[in-house]
Amino acid sequence: MADYPLKELGDTTPLQAAHTESMDSIAARGTLGMAQTIPEGLSPGSDIANLSILGYDPRRYITGRAVYEAASAGVKLTPRDVAFRCNLVTLGEQNNAAIMEDYSAGHISTDEAQPIILELDRRLGTDEIRFYPGVSYRHLMVWTEGIDTVATTPPHDISGKDIASYLPRGKGSDTLNRIMAEARAILQESPVNQERMAASKPPANAIWLWGQGKPINLPTFREKYGLNGSVISAVDLIKGIGITLGLSPVEVPGATGYLDTNYQGKAEHALKALEARDFVFVHVEAPDEASHSGSLANKIRAIEDFDRLVVRTVLEGLKRFPEYRVMVLPDHRTPIVRKTHTAEPVPFAFLSSNDLLKSPRKDAAFNEVSAQDSGLFVEQGSSLMDLFIKG
């Protein structure tokens, strides 16, 4: 959700421009501040940011995001394996160069994507290379005895750019580039892509391999905080991080990881989970997806839908619990003008049931400026969870 001031919004941010009554109420009565969820020197990825938010220092537990996506998919990795994120993407052509036209292949549906990935596994899979289907455009490739030090680039970082300079580089890159080239030839023949093009939809005409890593052991959330919990997300990365930390995944019908996700269903399932568990981590991807596509209107819509359908529903539902705490924050910034993640601090706000006795602060709202003005700055984002849980 977090962003930069935009001229078209009168030099305010989308969070300032959006109607966010519920998040503003948390900020006005509770604790408001800024947190550095991306440690200095690390890439501003969702894996880094969400580990920080959950209380795990990414500098200590760093590995590739594909490892967590494997956990979500139920793919058991051995110490010999390297997992890679495998995006289905749309490549275009401009001046005889291949261009990253769409990092999500038009947000291809899971039903369309699954046969594509299974076909790639049938035709390109070996004793060393396997493909596993995920959700929408997000899938997995596992390379046994693979190389995890190869340099790769997130496809959402190069929208509209010539891909030549961003292909895998270094030791092991020959194998990855060969696989990507062979996959592109196979996808040209795909019946799914023929149907998509006939319907004027972007074809999934290539794969993009990135985000690699080897398995890692982390202490569970219960071992760290003495709490049991659940995770709710339509994104395999977030679900996989939760599973790795011992959080039970909750499936929500209609949760898509996009603008059409079942916002209210996520909130209702979170409240239900709290009847049996101490903690629930709810993730909504829609504002990030809108930012990657550069759509200001969709970003404001996603922020307002999140506030109205998730946060308000949760705040109303928490009234039946005698004691509670609730926190809201972005994992990282995804500025509209950049169309990718950046490492600046993000606003956070949390509220306890005891805070309801306080008079609301008139100058407090949930946005970057108000949070900055609060004077509270959590320099190490991985300590924010301690502050939230322990006070």
Tell me, briefly, the overall form.
Answer: globular
Kindly report the oligomeric state of this protein. Answer: single chain
Rg over CA atoms:
21 Å
CA distance, first residue to last residue: 25 Å
Q: What is the number of beta strands?
A: 12
Largest β sheet strand count, sense and barrel closure:
5 strands, antiparallel
- Tally of contiguous helical segments: 14
Structural class: alpha/beta
Q: Residue share in helices?
A: 25-40%
User: In sequence order, what are the helices and strands, one letter per element?
Assistant: HHEHHEEHEEHHEHEHEHEHHEEHEH
- Mean residue pLDDT: 96
Give unreliable regions as ranges: none
Q: How large a portion of the residues is in β-strands, by DSSP E?
A: 15-25%
Describe what you observe in this structure.
The chain has 391 residues and is of the alpha/beta class. It is 35% helix and 18% strand. Strands 2, 3, 4, 5 and 6 form a 5-stranded antiparallel sheet that branches. Strand 4 and strand 5 form a beta hairpin. Helix 4 packs across helix 9, helix 10 runs parallel beside helix 12 and helix 11 (286-292) runs antiparallel to helix 12 (296-317). The longest helix is centred in the C-terminal third of the chain and has 22 residues, at 296-317. The chain is globular. It starts with 13 loop residues before the first helix and ends with a helix.
